[in-house]
Design brief:
Layout lengths: L6 E3 L9 E2 L5 E5 L5 H11 L11 H5 L14 E9 L7 E9 L10 E8 L9 H15 L5 E7 L3 E9 L3 H9 L9 H14 L6 E8 L10 H8 L7 E8 L3 E3 H10 L3 E5 L2 H14 L2 E12 L4 E6 L20 E4 L3 E10 L6 E10 L6 E9 L12 H16 L10 H8 L4 H4 L2 H16 L25
Parallel strand pairs: 1-11, 6-7, 6-9, 9-10, 10-12
Antiparallel strand pairs: 2-14, 3-13, 4-5, 5-16, 7-8, 13-15, 13-17, 14-16, 17-18
Helix pairs in contact: 3-4, 3-8, 5-6, 6-7, 9-10, 10-12
Length: about 475
């Protein structure tokens, strides 16, 4: 291992199995709009390296892309569904589900109450991490409105306030504070977060969207070093209308696992900054428009056993829930902001194609502020099924390409018969106007880079030869 990449902390969550509906026909998971895994993989590939398999979370690849779902005409969410024959798993269909939140015009957004908690420990000097953070913050300053409030906390050995809560129109003062940040010494993330929450809580009221935004490489050298212990330590200060967003930066030594878990414990989302283009998209555009729409959003799919014989959810391994948790008020799940969408893909095998319903999709969530529980459900019928991959919508094709690329990178058993050249060929099924989109042409470049770099052999070949692979056989993989 290259020494500079030897201190990367990722957790491997395994790969979802294929499930026989005669044993279990219900699938329940927590929604996530997180995208960090895709941006981390992009940073690796652009530097001529394959990302570690444990760094690839399929759902975060899928949820990076905009599939242009229709927003609901009324209510909070719209459920979109489409199925088509799987190009790589013979006898199976891919079922794509999209949950789209209502959108609001930028002029309707609530003022933001943001407290940036910025890591200025010695490790932030590596690869000019702090420099990227400062440039990113300057982009955000341009987008602040008069009623927005921004504060900055910095932490190394200790934590201190760099900028007291300041109105968005005082851009000169904010820029000066950003410029003053310098890295050095140890890292006490716990103290930084505690001070950040205190400041955010002081200025929080229902008329504002309040967020603590932690920007760090996740390397902790002082204080608690696990998300659980940090949240125990900051206890009563966390939550109560203030949400956490974690923004990762850095590639030499970097703790993906801690930043992911912190976002989850803080009812927020986790993103990653690889370059200024990411900063423009994530900080300058998304952060200010993130207005919480739903808390603890859970998704449940109930398959009709007489119609569907097997299913497999792609990704979401770290977000699987017990079926009984769907109706539990205590079980924490994902938070979704206005205009955001969540996408999930299943591989399903039809037992029968007679007309009618083959599954139900249900979502359950709480309304922020009141915590009132709401439900939405939609039946899935044959009208959602396309006869060939080419007949599928452009967005469904794109979701399949993205998910299969992630499966391939993480060495999934179920993508071992897919070559990168197959994904590049499928990419040409997208409309030419989509191909011009920066995000989609970038994906094409990343698949080409992975094709060049991936020299791994088939790790299953000695026990389960590819030539004998049957798509119904469910192997026990260690």
């Amino acid at each position: 291992t290259n020494k500079s990449y030897s201190d990367m902390y990722f957790r491997y969550y395994g790969t979802n199995p294929t499930i026989d509906t005669s044993e279990e026909n219900v699938s329940t998971f927590s929604a996530t709009p997180d995208t960090a895994s895709y941006t981390i993989a992009k940073a690796y590939l652009s530097q001529g390296r394959l990302p570690p398999e444990a760094a690839v979370r399929v759902e975060e690849f899928i949820n990076t892309f905009d599939y242009r779902y229709r927003a609901p005409k009324r209510g909070d969410f719209n459920i979109d569904a489409e199925a088509f024959p799987s190009p790589n798993r013979r006898g199976y269909h891919v079922l794509r589900l999209g949950i789209k939140g209502k959108t609001e015009h930028p002029s309707q957004r609530k003022p933001a109450n943001l407290v940036f908690v910025i890591d200025i420990s010695a490790s932030m000097n590596k690869e000019k991490r702090l420099r990227l953070v400062k440039k990113s913050l300057q982009l955000l300053v341009n987008r602040l409105k008069k009623k927005d409030i921004l504060a900055i906390v910095a932490f190394n050995n200790d934590a201190y306030t760099v900028l007291n809560p300041t109105p968005g129109h005082d851009k000169g003062r904010i820029r000066q504070a950003v410029d003053s940040l310098k890295a050095g010494k140890a890292s006490n993330l716990q103290r930084g977060l505690l001070l950040g929450y205190r400041l955010a809580r002081k200025h929080h009221d229902r008329s504002k969207t309040s967020r603590v935004v932690l920007v760090s490489d996740g390397i902790v050298t002082k204080g608690a070093a696990t998300a659980e212990k940090i949240f125990q330590a900051i206890g009563s200060q966390a939550g109560r209308g203030v949400y956490l967003a974690t923004v990762g930066v850095g590639q030499g030594n970097y703790n993906d696992r801690l930043l992911q878990q912190l976002a989850r414990r803080g009812n927020g989302n986790y993103t990653y900054l690889g370059n200024l283009a990411d900063a423009r998209r994530l900080l300058a555009n998304k952060l200010l428009t993130m207005q919480l729409l739903a808390k603890d959003l859970k998704i449940q799919v109930v398959f009709d056993k007489t119609r569907i014989s097997r299913f497999r959810l792609l990704g979401y391994e770290s977000r699987m829930l017990k079926n009984e948790s769907f109706r539990s008020n205590r079980r924490d799940a994902g938070e979704i902001s206005t205009g955001h969408a969540v996408t999930a893909l299943y591989e399903i095998k039809f037992r029968s194609r007679k007309p009618g319903r083959f599954a139900w999709v249900r979502i359950r969530y709480k309304t922020p502020g009141t915590d009132k529980v709401r439900f939405l459900r939609r039946p899935l019928t044959n009208s959602t099924v396309r006869h060939t991959f080419s007949k599928a919508s452009a967005s469904a094709k794109l979701s399949y390409i993205v998910a299969t690329f992630a499966e391939k990178l993480r060495g999934s058993y179920w993508a071992r018969n897919v070559q990168y050249k197959d994904l590049l060929a499928l990419h040409h099924y997208l409309p030419s106007r989509w191909m011009k989109h920066r995000h989609i042409s970038e994906l094409h470049g990343l698949i080409k880079a992975a094709k060049k770099l991936d020299k791994r052999g088939d790790k299953f070949e000695s026990r389960l030869p590819l030539a004998e692979m049957t798509f119904d056989h469910v192997p026990i993989l260690r």
